Amino acid sequence: MSEQNKPGAMPATRLSFNEKFRLQTWLMGIIAFAVVLFLLVQAKFILIALAIAIILFSLTSDAINSISRLQIGQLRIANWLASIVAVLLIASGLLTLAGLVISQLNTVLSTTLSYTDDAQRAIAQMFSWMGEDVEESVLQTVRSIQVTGYLRSAAGQAGTILSQVVLIILFVGFLFAERVWFGTKLENLMEDKAQARRVSAIIGSIIRRVNHYLLVKALISTVTGIAIFLLLSVFDIQFAVAMGLLTFVLNFIPSVGSIVATLVVTLVAYIQVPEPQTAVLIFVLAGMTQFLLGNVIDPMLMGKTLRLSSFGIIMSLAFWGAVWGIPGMFLAVPFMVAVMIVCSHIPAARPMAVLLSREGLPEEEFPLTVLDDADADEAGTRGPERARPYSHAISAE
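^ that's the sequence the OP posted. Answer follows.
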């Protein structure tokens, strides 16, 4: 009996078709990834503003829902009033922060040119122990860098910051205007209330983890920025406010941000102080501050909120930094949290969640199987033992 006529044997033509289908699937996946990557790069201005607006919206939605449930006597704060107040506070906070960043950027840019020659010589002197030839070579290399071009590019970013802040405020306002219908839209989209509640629970888990991460990062970054400002003020270093603000911003970038901030602070101090020992002391104190707050206090406050792979974080930083630049590095960790949680609930994508998690166990802290009352009665799980999904964090009650 021939091989093809044996019972249960698959025809050779069928195997060839499966191989072609698998190859086509891989090719279509590669093409789809290339198209998505192209759109991410081309529309990055709008997408970055939208991503930041969604994060700000999720940060304040839980607080608004809590405020709207408060009741003082017969007086209860209306949900729409709390939403308007939240939008106004977000707008004022963003505009204030943008104004502070632009003013400090202008201050630094207006005085940097006067320090350009000193900075170049200071960098070259770091290599003086290797010999005069090496020092002179480093000096010529540093002088070949077009500092003026970089300064003009940085000055051009000031206008971009303001326009992006305005776009973020508009996005946040429209998100708050639509928040009343999110729950209804989700149920109509899923066409299944149980599935809609399950998706809502997954979204709630992402929101809760990202919110906790951002709040802890904001607290640690604020304390670190103030500490750097006080440190430079004690040594009477110029740009103390700018360096404190830079430290606050860069600390939102995991691992890399604190290192870059410490090096920049040390370089600014090294250029201005006459004694190298003072710059070394500032470097040690700034490094100790970053280490204490970033490697001791931060993990204590963060707990098990992230449980992300360190290598995965570096890869995420590299990818989003290449796609969206510095804003992408700020958003890398929230994106990674969202991808890990979503992949952990899709059987085909679960290996990706395992790779992104720290211990290889990306399970949720609560079960996401959502049952309605009738199903719970049949299963015998209704009551305090029943697993309840996370409430609609982005919908108004």
